[in-house]
Each structure stands twice: as C-alpha cells, then as structure tokens.
Amino acid sequence: MKMDSRPRSSLGARVTERLRRAIIDGELELGDALSEDKLATTLGVSRSPVKEAIATLEQQGLIDVRPQRGSFVFLPTREDTQNLCEFRKTVELEALRLAMERKREETLSAMRAAAEDMLVAFEAGDNLGSARADDRFHDASLDNCGNPYLVNAYRLVSSKVAALRSHRSTLPSRDKASAEHLAIVKLLEADRIAEALDYLGTHILMMAERYGLDEGPARVTGGRAARSAKLDHIGPLLD
C-alpha cells in the first residue's frame, strides 16, 4: 500500500516546503521544540496548514511528534545515524554501479562538478553552499541510475540526510569529505569501479563519527531541556 505523505492543500504544501527548508538549511536547530501557534503567527497562516505540514514532515522523518510533549525537529541518536548510514550505503552503492553502466558520462560530470563546487564553497566559508554541493554529489548516482525503486527508497531519508549535512557543515571534517569526493571521482574516471564503490561505502559509514551526534536526544532522556525554536527570522509566508 502506498502512503501519500503530501499535504492535502496548496497552502499546506507551501507551509510544508517552507518548514522543510528551514530544517534542512539550519534555520531551525535539531531538537528545537515547535509551537503550532507560533509557527502559524510567524508564517501568517491559520493552524490548519501548520498541522498538515507537521504531519507531512513527521512522515519524512524531519519532525518528531510526541504525545503530551509536543513537536520537535528531529534529533537522531548515534545509533539512528549509524542505521541511516547503513541504509544509504546499500542504496547508493547499487545506484552508483548502475549509473556508471547506464549513464557514465552524465554521472561523472555531475559528480565532478558537485565535488569541485563543494571544495570552492568550503574554502570560501560558505557552509550552506558546501552542504548543498555535498547533496548534489550523492544525488548524482540516484539521478542517473535509471531505477525508480532505488530513487524512491532514497527519498525516504534524503531530507534527513540533507539536514544533517547542513547542521554539521562547519566541522573541520568537511574538508576531508570534499577530498574523498574528488578521490572517488578519479577512481571512477579510471574505471576502477570496485575500488570506487568500496571507497564510497567507507565514506558513507564515516557520517556518524564525523557528525559527532550525542548518544540520545536530550529532550527525551532528561538532559538539557529542548530549545524553543527561534522563528522570527523565518518571516511570513509570501503570497
């Protein structure tokens, strides 16, 4: 049975996309507590489309809704992130193998451009630009693999992965990730596919270690209290 996670109204869709971008781009922090009333006021809408947006983003894994506690921007444990990396490795390696068989030049062109853009952005101190180039590098194999089942599988986690990249994009390890991207491209260009796939798998599994996530969400385990989201900079939803 197919689960439709799309909001039911056009306004709900716009609110959903605005909140999704706010989470992915780091405007809202991981673990932030979200108030439907404050979101509605800030975005200049009623609570109904906000409720739609929260329900949709919960299905996408970007928001945790906890009965009697409220709604929070997701905050994964280290175990969650390790599981996410294992899933990514399974999907991305097969997608890259197929992409190199079916659209080799398109795949290589997209991956090299993204790897170079990531390096330029990192050196310029553009953390968000670096994170978005990181997204494009890993998306290239999915875009060119020709298998919609792999694409749909990756969509289950793509927003979560993008958010983790942007929230952790200031770490020094991003420079290492950029160099690894270029090394993977060079192996692919030399048709050393098996080595490239092995390198990519190791690169993906490093995510949990590099992002340095806590062992558990503080709002659940009783550590520091969850922060209330600062929404003033998000601004009203434009017509």
Please, could you describe this protein's structure?
There is one protein chain. With 239 residues, the chain is mainly alpha-helical. 66% of the residues lie in helices and 4% in strands. The chain has helices at residues 10-24, 36-43, 47-59, 78-102, 104-123, 127-144, 148-167, 173-189, 193-205, 207-211, 218-221, and strands spanning 33-34, 63-66, 70-73. The chain is elongated.
The averaged pLDDT comes out at: 86
CA radius of gyration = 19 Å
Q: What is the CATH topology of the largest domain?
A: Four Helix Bundle (Hemerythrin (Met), subunit A)
Order of helices and strands: HEHHEEHHHHHHHH
Enumerate how many helices there are, as a single number.
Answer: 11
CATH superfamily of the largest domain: GntR ligand-binding domain-like
Outline the secondary-structure elements.
Elements: H1 10-24, E1 33-34, H2 36-43, H3 47-59, E2 63-66, E3 70-73, H4 78-102, H5 104-123, H6 127-144, H7 148-167, H8 173-189, H9 193-205, H10 207-211, H11 218-221
Antiparallel strand pairs: 1-3, 2-3
Give a short overview.
The protein has 239 residues and is mainly alpha-helical. The protein folds into two domains: 10-75, Winged helix-like DNA-binding domain superfamily/Winged helix DNA-binding domain (Arc Repressor Mutant, subunit A); 78-211, GntR ligand-binding domain-like (Four Helix Bundle (Hemerythrin (Met), subunit A)). Helices cover 66% and strands 4% of the residues.
